[in-house]
Specification:
The chain is α+β, with helices and mostly antiparallel strands and 293 residues long. The chain is built from 7 helices and 13 strands. It folds into 2 domains: 88 residues, Phosphorylase Kinase, domain 1 (2-Layer Sandwich), CATH 3.30.200.20; 186 residues, Transferase(Phosphotransferase), domain 1, CATH 1.10.510.10. The strands form 4 sheets. It has a 6-stranded antiparallel sheet with strand order 1-2-3-4-6-5, covered by helices on one side. Strands 7-9-10 form a 3-stranded antiparallel sheet, covered by helices on one side.
Length: 293
């Protein structure tokens, strides 16, 4: 894989430093030579036949990002493709909004109030995607960047797809994947609801949902839904979780998509719970408290 050095000029941008690497990509901090604006420059390269899918995912990410307009979703300014001959893309550059913050899996929220606000912003962004006809399909804590002010940016739309897509292979992250993703059924907004619920579950309990996993950690692609065991209620793992928040998490984690709430309902519930936590309001099922950690 070709690597650029500090000072190299790539597609009109001067490389300032390397930000990170993926399976077939490198992300650089770069400055536009004309506007002087700072960007994240993603360089995806074909290194073998298997890496072609990363080029396809990067193109998907750009295509879908152009159809979205939400402050909590990272914007992509432009895409440049390099081809061998007329048809075969061998390299692709994405000029992306620079997101200054830390991934949610690296810096967990310290209070339930903060967690509700973070996930409310993320749920609102995905509800926007659903209104535009798309599903994120890989929502997880390390795809959520949070800055010092608590502002959220969802990144990585590489596995996003139109609502109703049936994927040829299993795609998703095992600890957050929905049963319908494992069984290669239609991907719908309810898939994002499950991924969101699994992410909230992990952040508040530090335990991962294993609904679609066999005891050895492998994905159970052939087991019938009726045999899948629901996860232990989050409140039984962390008894400080507000009861209403626990109820919402477990509704999102229902095995059947039909039993899960719509994303806009999740947004409303998170807003309500956040307001109750902030005000210190009690409900019939228990007291809302904001613990440290």
């Amino acid at each position: 894989m070709e690597v650029f050095k500090k000072g190299d000029v790539v597609e009109g941008c001067r490389v300032l430093s390397e930000l990170g690497r993926g399976a077939a990509s490198i992300i650089y901090l770069a400055q536009d030579e004309k506007s002087k604006r700072i960007w994240a420059l993603k360089d995806v390269q074909k290194t073998d036949d298997k890496s072609v899918r990363f080029l396809e995912q990067a193109e998907t990410e750009y295509t879908i990002a152009q159809k979205l307009d939400h402050p909590a979703i990272r914007k992509i300014e432009r895409m440049v493709k390099k081809k061998k001959g007329l048809l075969h893309t061998i390299r692709l550059f994405l000029l992306m909004e620079l997101v200054d913050g830390i991934a949610l899996d690296r810096l967990m929220p310290k209070t339930f109030e903060s967690a509700c606000d973070i996930f409310r912003q993320a749920a609102s962004a995905m509800a926007h995607m659903h209104e535009r006809g798309f599903v994120h399909a890989d929502f997880k804590p390390n795809n959520v960047i949070v800055d010092e002010a608590g502002t959220v940016k969802i990144i990585d739309l590489g596995q996003s797809c139109p609502i109703g897509t049936v994927k040829k292979r299993i795609q998703g992250t095992p600890d957050y994947i929905a049963p319908e993703q494992v069984h290669r059924r239609q991907i719908t907004p309810k898939t994002d609801v499950y991924n969101l619920g699994a992410s909230i579950y992990f952040v508040l309990t530090r335990e991962k949902v294993k609904t679609a996993l066999a005891p050895d950690g492998s994905l159970m692609g052939s087991i019938d839904d009726s045999l899948l065991e629901p996860p232990t209620p989050a409140i039984e793992v962390n008894r400080r979780i507000p009861p209403k928040l626990n109820d919402l998490i477990m509704q999102c984690l229902e095995v059947s998509p039909d039993d899960r709430p719509e994303m806009f309902d999740v947004v409303d519930q998170l807003e309500l719970i956040h307001a109750m936590l902030k005000a210190g309001v009690k409900d019939r099922s228990g007291e809302f408290r904001t613990p440290k950690g």
